[in-house]
Amino acid sequence: DAGVIQSPRHEVTEMGQEVTLRCKPISGHDYLFWYRQTMMRGLELLIYFNNNVPIDDSGMPEDRFSAKMPNASFSTLKIQPSEPRDSAVYFCASSFGFGGLEGYTFGSGTRLTVV
Amino acid sequence: AQSVTQLGSHVSVSEGALVLLRCNYSSSVPPYLFWYVQYPNQGLQLLLKYTTGATLVKGINGFEAEFKKSETSFHLTKPSAHMSDAAEYFCAVSDGRGSQGNLIFGKGTKLSVKP
């Protein structure tokens, strides 16, 4: 398996623009997680899905953020409109089971810079 | 509720010296415990895990950790540091069994290795 695949690796956008981050989880994994990492706040869980259904989005900072998982092999995280404070590295992770025996497998992340 | 405390946000050792990264957890049930490593500009990788059985677990790159229930600790050690060990290390805990329980991450410890 190629692991969790995220795209793009880097994204630079202007304030006010829409940004879409993409994630392909490991085949057979039933949980998918979106995290944000910043120097100030560390690793934050934004939202997670189970069998494509959003379960907990309490970590999503505000309504400008939305996430979807239309099928078992694809998820998106959208920010509209983007703001400079959204600059961070966004990670997608997947797992078999919630916090189960194998832990989570992380993608390489998308480094977002909003100018 | 579960929690993870990593003592020391930065640890610096000399090449060849002992590496000790501290992790204490809080969990109401026997936990699953994990250490992840993040190299610069990469995602988190699973280093080692404790689920059940032997309390001393060995991971990749010569790292090991010992689960001490009486001390609620899961410290990470390596007898001799190598320059390539410079990275950020995250401890995580889950009280899940199968589909239950979330993976809670500590704030991370950045390890520097001096020549």
Give a written overview of the molecule.
The complex is a heterodimer of chains A (115) and B (115). By secondary structure, chain A is mostly beta strands. Chain A is built from no helices and 11 strands. Chain A has strands spanning 5-7, 10-13, 19-24, 31-38, 42-50, 53-56, 65-71, 74-79, 88-95, 105-106, 110-114. In chain A, β4 (31-38) and β5 (42-50) form a beta hairpin. The model of chain A has no long low-confidence stretch (mean pLDDT 93). With 115 residues, chain B is mostly beta strands. In chain B, strands 2, 4, 5, 9, 10 and 11 form a 6-stranded mixed beta sheet that branches. In chain B, strands 1-3-8-7-6 form a 5-stranded antiparallel beta sheet, with no helix packed on it. Chain B is globular. Chain A binds chain B through residues 4, 42-43, 45, 91, 93, 95, 97-109, 111, and chain B through 32, 34, 36, 41-46, 49, 51, 90, 92, 94-103, 105, 107-108.
Notable features of this structure?
heterodimer, A: 115 residues, mainly beta, seven-stranded mixed β-sheet, B: 115 residues, six-stranded mixed β-sheet, five-stranded antiparallel β-sheet, 55% strand
The CA-CA distance between the termini of chain A, in Å, is 36 Å
Count of alpha/pi helices of chain B: 0
- What is the global morphology of chain A? globular
User: Helicity of chain A, in percent?
Assistant: under 10%
Q: Any idea what the shape of chain B is?
A: globular
Write the topology of this structure:
The complex is a heterodimer of chains A (115) and B (115).
Chain A (H helix, E strand, L loop, with lengths): L4 E3 L2 E4 L5 E6 L6 E8 L3 E9 L2 E4 L8 E7 L2 E6 L8 E8 L9 E2 L3 E5 L1
Parallel strand pairs in A: 2-11
Antiparallel strand pairs in A: 1-3, 3-8, 4-5, 4-9, 5-6, 7-8, 9-10, 9-11
Chain B lengths: L2 E5 L2 E5 L4 E8 L5 E7 L5 E7 L5 E3 L5 E5 L4 E6 L8 E8 L8 E3 L3 E6 L1
Parallel strand pairs in B: 2-11
Antiparallel strand pairs in B: 1-3, 3-8, 4-5, 4-9, 6-7, 7-8, 9-10, 9-11
